[in-house]
């Protein structure tokens, strides 16, 4: 019997060890399942966190875009209000256009008449050119294809040309009745102060007399100065002092 007890004890120990080994395997398996489940849960958590971070960034971007749109809309509102104000002003101006049209046309007609009378009474230089300019203005006033603003602009240009005549020196060639014979002469215009002619052969000279409204002959001693003045006016000679007869107004 003594020999049997050790055998039974060994069997019990072996059986107990087998039970513990089996339990340990179950624990290990269970632990593996838990770890696997934890890894899957962590993966889900990471995906959710990434999704939340992306949505947060999207939310911030949308808020920034909304702020920009708010500023843009406010600016558009200001521009729209300004455009409405401009439209109101334009509508008011358009209501006055017909009134202005009725007033400006008679004004331009009076200006042309005044310019025509001025040229007729002025020193007779560039007579043909100036007469054609006035005739063109009169013809322009009858045309319907030219706006009133363009007519007024051209009229002001004609006035400016006449103003410029008073402060420039000019030489040009034209025909003139000299001693009952039409001859080609060189004219020297010094502003509106003097209009002098010199025949092409350089033998006769004369100047316009505002009192008699005619040309009077100048002495031969003035011819050299007149020739010099013609060369200066044509930019063939540098500006210099001239000694010329002047018909001063009384």
Automatic annotation (TrEMBL):
One of its GO terms (biological process) is vesicle-mediated transport. Keywords: Plasmid, Signal. It comes from the Bacteria. The keyword Transmembrane helix does not apply. Pfam families: DUF3450. GO terms for cellular component: membrane. This is DUF3450 domain-containing protein.
């Amino acid at each position: 019997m003594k020999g049997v007890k050790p055998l039974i004890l060994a069997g019990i120990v072996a059986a107990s060890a087998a039970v513990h080994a089996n339990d340990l395997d179950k624990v290990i398996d269970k632990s593996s399942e838990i770890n696997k489940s934890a890894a899957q849960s962590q993966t889900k958590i990471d995906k959710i966190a990434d999704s939340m971070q992306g949505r947060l960034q999207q939310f911030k971007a949308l808020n920034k875009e909304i702020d920009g749109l708010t500023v843009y809309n406010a600016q558009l509102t200001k521009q729209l209000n300004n455009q409405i104000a401009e439209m109101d002003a334009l509508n008011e101006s358009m209501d006055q256009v017909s009134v202005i049209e009725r007033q400006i046309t008679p004004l331009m007609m009076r200006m042309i008449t005044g310019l025509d009378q001025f040229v007729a009474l002025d020193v007779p230089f560039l007579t043909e050119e100036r007469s054609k300019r006035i005739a063109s203005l009169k013809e322009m006033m009858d045309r319907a294809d030219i706006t009133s603003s363009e007519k007024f602009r051209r009229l002001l240009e004609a006035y400016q040309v006449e103003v410029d005549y008073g402060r420039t020196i000019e030489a040009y060639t034209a025909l003139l009745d000299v001693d009952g014979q039409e001859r080609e002469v060189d004219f020297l215009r010094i502003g509106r102060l003097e209009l002098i002619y010199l025949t092409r052969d350089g033998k006769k000279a004369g100047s316009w007399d505002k009192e008699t409204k005619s040309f009077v002959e100048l002495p031969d001693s003035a011819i050299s100065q007149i020739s010099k003045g013609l060369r200066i006016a044509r930019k063939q000679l540098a500006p210099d002092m001239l000694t010329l007869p002047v018909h001063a107004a009384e």
